[in-house]
Amino acid sequence: MNILKSLTLLFITAPLMLSAQQVNYDDPIPMDPDVKKGKLENGLTYYIKKNDKPEDKVDLRLVINAGSILETDKQRGLAHFMEHMCFNGTERFPKNELVDYLQSIGVKFGQHLNAYTSFDETVYFLPIPSDDKEKLKKGFEILEDWAFNATLTPEEIDKERGVVLEEYRLGLGANKRMLANYIDKLMHGSRYADRLPIGKKEVLENFDHEELIQFYEDWYRPDLMSVIAVGDIDVNEIEIMIKRHFSKHTNPKNPKPRKTYGVPNHNETFVAVESDKEAAFSQVEVYYKDYDESEPNTTIGDYKSQLEISLFSTMINNRLDEIRNSNNPPFNYGFSYYGGTWSRDKKAYQSSAMVGEGKQLDALKVLVEENLRVKAHGFTEAELERAKTEMLTRVERQYKERDKTESSRYVQQLQNQFLRGSVMTNIEWDFKMMEKLLPKIVVKDINGQIDNYIKKDNRVVILTGPEKDGLKQPTREEVLKVIDIESKNLEPYEDEAIAESLIRRKLPEGKIVDTETNENVNSKTLTLSNGAMVTYKKTDFKNNEILFEAISFGGSNLIDDETYKEVQWAMGGLTEAGFSGMDKNDISKFMSGKVARVNPYVGGTTEGMSGSASPKDLEYLMQMIQAYFTDLNYDEEAFESYKTKQNAFMSNLTSMPNVYFQEQFYTFLSQNNPRFNGIFPDEEAWERTSYKKAYQIYRKRFENAGDFHFYFVGNIDEDEFKSYVEKYIAALPATESSEKPKDLGYRMLEGEHKKVVKKGQDPKSQVTIMFYGEADYKPKEAMALDAAGEVLTIKLIEELREGESGVYGAGANGRMSKVPYGSYNFSISFPCGPENAEKLTESALMELNKIIQNGPTEEDLKKFKESAKLEYKEKLKENKFWLDQFTKAYTYNTSLDDVMNYEDRIESLKADDIQMVAKKYLSEDKIIGMLMPEDKE
Question: What domains does the chain contain, in order, with CATH numbers?
Answer without folding.
Answer: 35-246 (3.30.830.10), 270-483 (3.30.830.10), 512-632+666-729 (3.30.830.10), 753-932 (3.30.830.10)
